[in-house]
């Protein structure tokens, strides 16, 4: 119990004093995750809008596959990206393996289905309300998509924050494609696993506090933006 208490005290001190190693790892985590989030949103939002406004033969199948991919095991994603980026893989010549770029690619693959599925649910309901109006105005497909994306911006931001929460806590795929290299690809989750194995519980707990803080901040933002609290009632 004393060891645990000492570790908590040291971890709190590292956070308060902004330990350089802790800050470096945190900033790298945010850089990788935010970059992946922006790329994923540029892919997921148009796909979700297109599935809402356009009817085609395999639409239901595409939606079902998209929803199924939400549960795609991250380690499998990491393995696939590793094989593609390895020296013997088709993209090995790019030399991206064990770099932040490889980590971003893995995170994008993981969170695109999640963001697209959440966004599609909101856009589908909004399209049901705007369908007759936009059809009567003879709006083109591009205009319909832009109108939906703009009016659903709050819901889309909530979907993006959900993707951020999923990406920032990812460890399996990131460990495989990033290699957890010091001063290069080490992020919060992989650093926590490493420092725990080393027995440096103070730094591991400090990193854990930062990760928990980010997760709580994201959930509070989702709660705020989703307006789940109405007139003082939950």
| Low-confidence runs of at least 5 consecutive residues | 228-234
- The CATH class label is Mainly Alpha
Percent helix, as a range, is over 70%
User: Terminal Cα separation, in Å?
Assistant: 38 Å
Mean pLDDT: 84
Shape: globular
Annotated CATH topology = MetI-like fold
With helices defined by DSSP (H or I, 4 residues minimum), what is the helix count? Answer: 10
Q: How large, in whole angstroms, is the Cα Rg?
A: 21 Å
Number of domains: 1
Taken in chain order, the helices and strands follow as HHHHHHHHHH
For the secondary structure, the number of strands is 0
The CATH superfamily name is MetI-like
Major beta sheet, specifics?
Answer: none
How much of the sequence lies in strands comes to: under 5%
CATH architecture: Orthogonal Bundle
**Class by SSE composition:** mainly alpha
Strands, helices and their partners?
Layout: H1 2-16, H2 20-53, H3 59-68, H4 74-85, H5 100-136, H6 141-151, H7 153-168, H8 172-178, H9 188-198, H10 201-225
Helix pairs in contact: 1-10, 2-5, 2-6, 2-7, 3-5, 4-5, 4-8, 5-6, 5-7, 5-8, 7-10, 9-10
Q: Top keywords for this entry?
A:
single chain; 234 residues; mainly alpha; MetI-like fold; 10 helices; 0% strand; globular; MetI-like_sf; transmembrane helix
Molecular structure report:
InterPro entries: ABC_perm_TupB-like, MetI-like, MetI-like_sf. Its main location: membrane. The protein is mostly helical and 234 residues long. The protein has a single domain (34-225), classed as MetI-like fold, CATH 1.10.3720. The protein is 76% helix and 0% strand. The chain has helices spanning 2-16, 20-53, 59-68, 74-85, 100-136, 141-151, 153-168, 172-178, 188-198, 201-225. The radius of gyration is 21 Å and the shape is globular. The two termini are 38 Å apart. Residues 228-234 have low confidence and may be disordered.
């Amino acid at each position: 119990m004393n060891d645990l208490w000492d570790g908590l005290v040291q971890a709190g001190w590292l956070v308060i004093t902004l330990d350089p190693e802790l800050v470096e790892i945190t900033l790298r985590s945010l850089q990788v995750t935010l970059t992946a989030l922006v790329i994923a949103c540029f892919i997921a939002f148009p796909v979700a809008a297109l599935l809402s406004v356009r009817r085609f033969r395999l639409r239901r199948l595409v939606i079902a596959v998209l929803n199924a991919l939400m549960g795609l095991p991250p380690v499998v994603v990491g393995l696939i990206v590793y094989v593609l980026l390895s020296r013997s893989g088709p993209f090995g010549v790019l030399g991206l393996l064990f770099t932040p770029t490889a980590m971003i690619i893995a995170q994008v693959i993981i969170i695109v289905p999640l963001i697209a599925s959440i966004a599609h649910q909101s856009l589908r309901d909004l399209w049901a309300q705007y369908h007759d109006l936009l059809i009567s105005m003879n709006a083109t497909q591009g205009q319909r998509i832009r109108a939906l994306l703009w009016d659903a911006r709050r819901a889309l931001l909530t979907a993006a924050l959900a993707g951020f929460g999923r990406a920032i806590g990812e460890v399996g795929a990131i460990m495989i494609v990033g290699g957890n290299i010091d001063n290069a690809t080490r992020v919060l989750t992989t650093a926590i696993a490493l420092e725990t194995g080393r027995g440096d519980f103070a730094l591991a707990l400090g990193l854990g506090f930062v990760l928990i803080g980010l997760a709580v901040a994201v959930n509070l933002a989702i709660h705020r933006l989703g307006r789940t609290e109405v007139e003082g009632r939950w």
